[in-house]
């Protein structure tokens, strides 16, 4: 169930201005944490909130995704330490791949992306496992064995596009879900400068704050950490001492790591004064077993002449830091890169050097594995065009990248894949998708498309000129729509010389190339040449005179039969209404479908006049807002009213005040919607 269903939206239109204000306020608050986007998944409503624990503003996720259903966690699975974001989640029972699309990203800059999963037994089914994709590449597997474990996954990456797409992929081991999604721009800091680049990202294994367990088992993050990295406290074994500094730990100028002072202020040392040993399990299914480890140190003791603190750092038995000497009250760092090899865990050993009088000390450590993102996303212009179509036609099955990976390619497209270039859309088949309106110009942005099938829809209007200039196009199927106008010379030429297979059968109002057709076009006055306008105005004037004469005549006739007209109308049967829905209603000047008329007249809400001849409604053309009078014969008007709930469509036999004046003004734009005027 989506956050806010279409019908719920409709019912709440009066709330729109309020909701808008809510968003505005949210935007301003979000700006207070520059470069942060914090999404609370599965949250109902439109308003954001300020998380009291962190002061970070979280927004609902409906804006970033159009699939999945919302759930709440039972209170029995939450305690005082459960973050507010864990209370709701969005789950994805349908579709193999469901994606959040986060735009407004600066391409080429560095970001931290983090996701939180708190199951809380919302569907009674654990274990559950699914894959997480960043764009078209696998990020990591999320494997939740118990309802109360809440894994967090994090990646440091360079934005390949001006958006991120974070996808949950069903691997057949339960329903994917997500509780929170956080994006932080960290480029400004130049942190992890050399280790994260266009091709390599870092996936977090652990970011540990040492020596803080005794004080409070809490996570240090924003605002202590400007980039909202989460430092989790590591439980010290009994053979360690937890120590802390009452004096602040400084950073040297240009210290890119910016480890929070609160993290640096605690540390561990071994009680036996010789060796600190611990290990971290490596991520199961680590994608590439090359790791990056950053260790952070600061000495809390002002060393006397006779004292020294020096130690060697080993990872899995290999010497990675020799004779490390932390500075007094100053952050000192050690970068370690290596391959994990066949090891299944990271074994750390900090051993005093032989001359050292003081034991090793460790304040914090970060462990990452590298992840290469080998696959490239589909061509940006193609993606932009497809995303517009997705929005326009509410294609909720279109998730993530249109072409890649091949397994999750959108079923309506096919793609050209090459080793050196990003994938391109080579065909689009939207046949029988009940699409209406004019043929969208955004299709022209698909510059590598060869085959475009728009057949068996309800497209109206003329065939746009851009289609003829899409040179890659070799098949265009427009058959069985409601297109009008005539086939242009350019399209005709391309069909004639064989460069385009053009299908246009089944468009009753479409004129062949070269033929003179007298169908009056849909109103587009600005584009008409002057003589055409004159002709239309004359026709319109004649029509309006006729209309007035008729209405006067009919009004008189009506007066004679008031009783009959007040008799209740026989209600239209539901089947009749249904049958009308899709049928074009009129034939005189242009064929309008019932849906179009409903749109033009805003659901037949304002009646200008009414009589035996039918009903005249006030309307506006969606294309340019031109005011029009819409006349609908009695039979159809009855149907229109039957579907209108509004009380404003009360019937009245006489024309309303000002209606005649309006009709005189609107004389050139009357849409006549019956055949027996
Ligand atoms: C969130 O609330 C805290 C205190 O409750 C306040 O200090 C902080 O400025 C607020 N943050 C925003 C972005 O409004
Ligand atoms: C999830 O983890 C459990 C326990 O470690 C393991 O047995 C299971 O195979 C994993 N599931 C998947 C799909 O990787
Ligand atoms: C360690 O990494 C930081 C951040 O990437 C970098 O600024 C620093 O130069 C590196 N230090 C060494 C010794 O490689
Ligand atoms: C990214 O960094 C890795 C590891 O430092 C290096 O091997 C690779 O060549 C770099 N790639 C680019 C595009 O700079
Ligand atoms: C610092 O150490 C003292 C004693 O060594 C302890 O009582 C205190 O709780 C510690 N503070 C923190 C913040 O770890
Ligand atoms: C460790 O060193 C401290 C002083 O630096 C000393 O008091 C303590 O006895 C030593 N512990 C062991 C086990 O050697
Ligand atoms: C580090 O010290 C521990 C304990 O003294 C010892 O078992 C281990 O072998 C040492 N590691 C190395 C690489 O020397
Ligand atoms: C488009 O899909 C329809 C089925 O939905 C199929 O009949 C038609 O052949 C397809 N068009 C092309 C060009 O393949
Ligand atoms: C549209 O025309 C093409 C080319 O003739 C054809 O392959 C395709 O099947 C047609 N689409 C449908 C839905 O019939
Ligand atoms: C067919 O006609 C079009 C438009 O005149 C032209 O651009 C195209 O090159 C021609 N193709 C062939 C194969 O002659």
From TrEMBL:
**According to the UniProt entry, where is the signal peptide?**
1-32
- Please verify whether the record's keywords include ATP-binding: yes
Instruction: Mark the transmembrane ranges.
Output: 532-555
This protein is called (wild Malaysian banana) hypothetical protein
GO CC aspect terms? plasma membrane
Q: Where in the cell is it found?
A: Cell membrane
Membrane topology annotation: Single-pass membrane protein
Cross-referenced PROSITE patterns, in alphabetical order? Answer: PROTEIN_KINASE_ATP (PS00107)
Q: Which Pfam families match?
A: LRR_8, Malectin_like
Q: Does the keyword ATP-binding apply?
A: yes
**InterPro entries, alphabetically?**
Kinase-like_dom_sf, Leu-rich_rpt, LRR_dom_sf, Malectin-like_Carb-bd_dom, Protein_kinase_ATP_BS
Single GO term (MF): ATP binding
Swiss-Prot/TrEMBL keywords = ATP-binding, Leucine-rich repeat, Membrane, Nucleotide-binding, Repeat, Signal, Transmembrane, Transmembrane helix
Q: Which residues form the Malectin-like domain?
A: 39-369
What top-level branch of life does the organism fall under?
Eukaryota
Amino-acid positions noted as binding ATP in the UniProt annotation, renumbered to this chain: 631
């Amino acid at each position: 169930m989506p956050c806010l269903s279409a019908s719920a939206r409709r019912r709440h239109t009066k709330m729109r201005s309020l909701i808008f204000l809510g968003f505005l306020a949210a935007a301003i608050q979000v700006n207070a944490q520059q470069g942060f986007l914090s999404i609370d998944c599965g949250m109902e409503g439109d308003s954001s909130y300020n998380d009291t624990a962190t002061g970070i503003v979280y927004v609902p996720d409906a804006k970033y995704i159009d699939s999945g259903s919302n759930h709440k966690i039972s209170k029995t699975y939450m305690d005082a330490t459960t973050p507010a974001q864990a209370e709701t989640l969005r789950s994805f029972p349908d579709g193999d791949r469901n994606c959040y699309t986060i735009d407004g990203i600066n391409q080429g800059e560095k970001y931290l992306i983090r996701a939180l999963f708190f199951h809380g037994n919302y569907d009674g089914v654990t274990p559950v496992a699914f894959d997480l994709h960043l764009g078209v590449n696998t990020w990591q597997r999320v494997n939740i064995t118990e309802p109360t474990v809440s894994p967090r996954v994090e990646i440091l990456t360079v934005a390949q596009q001006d958006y991120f797409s974070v996808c949950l992929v069903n691997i057949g081991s339960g329903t994917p879900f997500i509780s929170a999604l956080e994006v932080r721009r960290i480029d400004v800091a130049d942190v992890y400068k050399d280790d994260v680049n266009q091709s390599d990202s870092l996936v977090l294994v652990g970011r540990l704050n040492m020596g803080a367990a005794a004080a409070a088992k809490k996570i240090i993050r924003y605002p202590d950490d400007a980039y909202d990295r989460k430092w989790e406290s590591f439980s010290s074994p009994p053979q360690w001492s937890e120590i802390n500094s009452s004096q602040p730990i400084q950073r040297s100028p240009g210290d890119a790591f910016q480890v929070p002072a609160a993290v640096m202020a605690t540390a561990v040392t071994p009680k036996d004064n010789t060796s600190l040993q611990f290990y971290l399990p490596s991520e199961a299914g680590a994608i590439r077993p090359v790791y990056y480890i950053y260790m952070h140190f600061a000495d809390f003791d002002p060393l006397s002449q006779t004292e020294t603190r020096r130690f060697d750092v080993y990872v899995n038995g290999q010497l990675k830091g020799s004779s490390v000497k932390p500075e007094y009250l100053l952050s000192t760092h050690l970068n370690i890169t290596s391959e994990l090899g066949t090891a299944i865990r990271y074994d750390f050993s900090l051993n005093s050097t032989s001359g050292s009088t003081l034991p090793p000390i460790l304040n914090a450590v970060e462990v990452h594995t590298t992840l290469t993102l080998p696959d490239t996303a589909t061509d940006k212009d193609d993606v932009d065009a497809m995303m517009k179509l997705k929005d326009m036609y509410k294609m909720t099955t279109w998730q993530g990248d249109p072409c890649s990976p091949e397994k999750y390619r959108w079923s309506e497209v096919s793609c050209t894949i090459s080793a050196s270039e990003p994938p391109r859309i080579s065909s689009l088949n939207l046949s029988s998708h009940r699409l209406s309106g004019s043929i969208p110009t955004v299709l022209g942005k698909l510059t590598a498309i060869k085959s475009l099938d728009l057949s068996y829809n309800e497209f109206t209007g003329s065939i746009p000129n851009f289609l003829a200039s899409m040179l890659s196009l070799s098949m265009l199927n427009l058959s069985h729509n409601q297109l009008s106008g005539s086939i242009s010379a350019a399209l005709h030429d391309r069909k004639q010389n064989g460069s385009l297979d053009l299908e246009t059968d089944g468009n009753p109002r479409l004129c062949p190339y070269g033929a003179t057709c007298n169908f009056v076009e849909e109103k587009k006055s600005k584009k008409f040449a002057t003589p055409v306008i004159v002709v239309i105005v004359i026709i319109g004037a004649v029509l309006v005179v006729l209309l007035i004469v008729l209405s006067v005549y009919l009004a008189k006739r009506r007066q004679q039969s008031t009783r009959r007209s007040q008799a209740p109308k026989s209600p239209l049967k539901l089947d009749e209404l249904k049958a009308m829905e899709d049928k074009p209603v009129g034939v005189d000047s242009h064929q309008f479908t019932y849906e179009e008329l409903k749109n033009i007249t805003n659901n037949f809400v304002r009646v200008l006049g009414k009589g035996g001849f039918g009903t005249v409604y006030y309307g506006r053309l969606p294309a340019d807002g031109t005011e029009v009078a819409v006349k609908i014969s009695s039979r159809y008007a009855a149907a229109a009213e039957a579907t209108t709930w509004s009380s404003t469509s009360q019937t009245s036999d006489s024309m309303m005040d000002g209606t005649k004046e309006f009709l005189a003004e609107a004389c050139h734009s009357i849409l006549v919607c019956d055949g027996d005027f």
